[in-house]
Amino acid sequence: MANPDPRRADDAPVVEVRGLRKQYRDGTVALDGVDFSVARGEVFALLGPNGAGKSTTIEILEGYRDRSGGEARVLGVDPQHGDLAWRARLGIVLQGSAEADVATVRELIAHVARFYPNPRDVDEVIAAVGLEEKARTRIRNLSGGQQRRVDVALGIVGRPELLFLDEPTTGFDPEARRQFWELIRGLKGEGTTILLTTHYLDEAAHLGDRAGIIAGGRLVAIGPIDELGGPQAWVPIVRWRDAAGVHEERHEEPGRRVAELVRAAGAEPERLEIVRPSLEDVYLGLLGESADLEGVRA
């Protein structure tokens, strides 16, 4: 991959990864040839089970971990050689952080804002993460969910071009999670590119334009959320019961199959239902296929 000018055209990918590989000294392979790109203004969700390689990928792209092979560009720069000016264009929300717990919410956010050339208004950021009533509270006196909101505030105060969100809503209650989703939609509306890892598939479905699924250090699927796994993965299932037992069939036109069953039986079959696959169904199916392939390779 050529070394591009950091001031690239708006239609160039913000993140480019080709053949990304990470192997540790003990021989453990955390990433094995991962390829993907993230377009400007896109919300890209990186999904996968614990230990799949999501956080390793994010840390490499943030410049905090060296890769063993492959190529990577973030905002036109190799993250292994990113300077302070490059880092100022990033926002990072880690899975956990060690804030200055003696500072108040406002003091900490105002302190971090001074490191950026064009930060957001501190009070605006505090309001965006729903901490107005806690602005004068010391970090150590906040609940876990409130501390997580501080992490998010620190990630967005610098007005980043690219925002990394690693499990951002861990510890949030359902209402707080919905409020956070609105915040992310607002950032996207402003043109911020977002790379998200999450274990909440509904979060990926609500926020993501596209997603990649990592399993065993390999990218097993990538594409628009509602196209992952290919068309067949999203075909509805018609399920019913009769004297011969329980039946399950996939049909592109489930309504037509239901009408056929009713006509054939002269009445609606027992426990008749149409099941439309969810993102969770597709995700688990892809992980299962990946595990089967690993078994074949072994």
Notes on the protein architecture:
- By secondary structure, the chain is an alpha/beta fold.
- The chain has two domains: 15-226, 3-Layer(aba) Sandwich (Rossmann fold), CATH 3.40.50; 231-297, no CATH class.
- 32% of the residues lie in helices and 25% in strands.
- The chain has a six-stranded mixed beta sheet, sandwiched between helices. A three-stranded antiparallel beta sheet has the order 2-1-4, with helices on one face.
Q: How would you concisely characterize the structure shown here?
A:
With 298 residues, the chain is α/β, with parallel strands linked by helices.
* Through-space gap between termini: 32 Å
Return residue spans where pLDDT drops below 50 for at least 5 consecutive residues. 1-9
Give the integer mean of the pLDDT values: 88
Number of domains: 2
Tell me the radius of gyration.
23 Å
Beta-strand fraction estimate:
25-35%
Class from helix and strand fractions: alpha/beta
- The global form is globular
Q: Provide the succession of SSEs.
A: EEEHEHEHHHEHEHEEEEHEH
CATH second-level architecture of the largest domain: 3-Layer(aba) Sandwich
Number of H/I helices: 9
> What's the CATH class of the largest domain, please?
Alpha Beta
- CATH superfamily descriptor of the largest domain: P-loop containing nucleotide triphosphate hydrolases
Number of strands: 12
CATH-derived topology of the largest domain:
Rossmann fold
Helix content: 25-40%
- Within the largest sheet, what's the order of strands? 5-6-7-3-8-9
